[in-house]
Amino acid sequence: MKLITVKMPDLYVRGIDELVKAGNYSSRSEVIRIAIRELLKHELWGELHGEESNVLLDLNRLGVENEV
What we know:
Layout: H1 10-21, H2 28-43, H3 50-61
């Protein structure tokens, strides 16, 4: 995985921290990775059809990072 730095509003950070504190996620990083994955699935990968889309989803479930 690559390390990136992102600036975001305090409101977002507080929301992320609430999700972690509630035990829904193990870390801020996990929350952000999942949110970005869902965005990419909707915005980019949702356009893929058939076997290629299934392969990407299977790789995701296995924890393999996709380079987009």
